[in-house]
Amino acid sequence: MSISVLGSGAFGTALAISLAGNGPVTLWARNAVKAQAMQDSRRNGTRLPGVALPDNLSVTADIAEACDSRVLLLAVPMQTLRRALQEHKDHLAGKTLVACCKGIELDTGLGPIAVIQEVLPQAAAALLTGPSFAADIARGLPTALTLACGEADRGKELQEQLTTANLRLYRTTDTIGAEIGGALKNVMAIACGAVIGAGLGDSARAALMTRGYAEMQRMALACGAKAETLAGLSGFGDLALTCSSDLSRNYRLGLSIGRGEEFDSSITVEGAATARAVAEQSRRMNLDMPVTITVTNLLDQRLTIGEAAAHLLKRPLKEE
Ligand SMILES: NC(=O)C1=CN([C@@H]2O[C@H](COP(=O)(O)OP(=O)(O)OC[C@H]3O[C@@H](n4cnc5c(N)ncnc54)[C@H](O)[C@@H]3O)[C@@H](O)[C@H]2O)C=CC1
Ligand SMILES: O=C(CO)COP(=O)(O)O
């Protein structure tokens, strides 16, 4: 059974390379010139330099050709997912759509599965998430991910189809937990990067990861998710990776905030919009999310890193 990946950024290309080990894969790029260049050079030089595209991976800008497959992986940034779905609605109707993005939509507070269900109620929706850098996957390094699908049988089928020689998939039906874990770990990574960038130390980072994890759980449980999901790859696993590696763009944005440096705004950093969306949601739901709120204050330059740290330390003392 053929598989297509829509979105030829770092993650889409890496997933397509890994899946090509199972059989033919089509990678769709919205820009025809770039698609042709990738198809001819057998490289994605801008997003994934140094990795060759396997022979059975074909790159196209023809959406009809890409949507010939029944299973479509959507590897576009969270804030563009709705637009991508709307633009290609006719081709996507009735397909199995696996979102590969991590985040919460700024305007609606919805995660990727909910956005798919809103735009294309007839499509089957799933989410592929968990600790994985595109560069690692593309190089064939071992990776474990979570496949979240509300329909247990379809989830099982997808788990089998999308497992490859280097991608081991675990499945869950807790789509809300998987969405929230993957979205919020990016917010915590910005906070951790800021702490390290400002020289506040590894102990402060461990404190933020732990208290950030408590926020992830608080939000997830309030939305009906299971605590075990947050303890899995899509929550704790991805938090551990993203808060500790400067391969992470979210962590690197945090580092630049902590160091008082500029950051290239063309780089995909999902945690920034997600922090704002979740901060808004936490106010509506009356949930205590101090780390998330602090990240929005740093991003919008309402607090310096020193003020942010002092503010978090001075909060009323409480039980853990
Ligand atoms: N890069 C990584 O290591 C990983 C990324 N992810 C997630 O994958 C998602 C995508 O990230 P990357 O591929 O890294 O970003 P990227 O910046 O490398 O690529 C994004 C791609 O989406 C395309 N795109 C943007 N808007 C579009 C639209 N409306 N229609 C069609 N295509 C559109 C862009 O042209 C670009 O090719 C994010 O949510 C990210 O959190 C998840 C795990 C690992
Ligand atoms: O999601 C990722 C790792 O699991 C990639 O992290 P960044 O988007 O911060 O680069």
Automatic annotation (TrEMBL):
- What EC number(s) does its UniProt record assign? 1.1.1.94
Q: Does the keyword Acyltransferase apply?
A: no
- Binding locations of substrate: K102, R249, N250
Where on this chain does NAD(+) bind? G7, S8, G9, A10, F11, G12, A134, R249
MF terms (GO), sorted A to Z: glycerol-3-phosphate dehydrogenase (NAD+) activity; glycerol-3-phosphate dehydrogenase (NADP+) activity; NAD binding
Functional pathway: Membrane lipid metabolism; glycerophospholipid metabolism
Q: What Gene Ontology terms for biological process does this UniProt record contain?
A: carbohydrate metabolic process; glycerol-3-phosphate biosynthetic process; glycerol-3-phosphate catabolic process; glycerophospholipid metabolic process; phospholipid biosynthetic process
Q: Where in the cell is it found?
A: Cytoplasm
Q: Where does NADPH bind?
A: F11, R30, K102, A134, R249, E270
Q: Which UniProt keywords apply?
A: Cytoplasm, Lipid biosynthesis, Lipid metabolism, NAD, NADP, Nucleotide-binding, Oxidoreductase, Phospholipid biosynthesis, Phospholipid metabolism
GO CC annotation terms, alphabetical = cytosol
Residues where sn-glycerol 3-phosphate binds: K102, G130, S132, K185, D238, S248, R249, N250
- The residue ranges of the Glycerol-3-phosphate dehydrogenase NAD-dependent N-terminal domain are 3-151
Q: What top-level branch of life does the organism fall under?
A: Bacteria
Which residue spans traverse the membrane? none
Q: Which parts of the sequence belong to the Glycerol-3-phosphate dehydrogenase NAD-dependent C-terminal domain?
A: 174-308
Major place of residence: cytoplasm
Q: Which family does it belong to?
A: Belongs to the NAD-dependent glycerol-3-phosphate dehydrogenase family.
**Alphabetical list of PANTHER family matching this protein:** GLYCEROL-3-PHOSPHATE DEHYDROGENASE, GLYCEROL-3-PHOSPHATE DEHYDROGENASE [NAD(+)] 2, CHLOROPLASTIC
- HAMAP family assigned to the protein according to its UniProt record, in alphabetical order: NAD_Glyc3P_dehydrog
Q: Which NCBIfam families is this protein grouped with?
A: PRK00094.1-2, PRK00094.1-4
Described by its record, this protein's role is as follows: Catalyzes the reduction of the glycolytic intermediate dihydroxyacetone phosphate (DHAP) to sn-glycerol 3-phosphate (G3P), the key precursor for phospholipid synthesis.
- Name of protein: Glycerol-3-phosphate dehydrogenase [NAD(P)+]
**Lineage of source species:** Bacteria, Pseudomonadati, Pseudomonadota, Alphaproteobacteria, Rhodobacterales
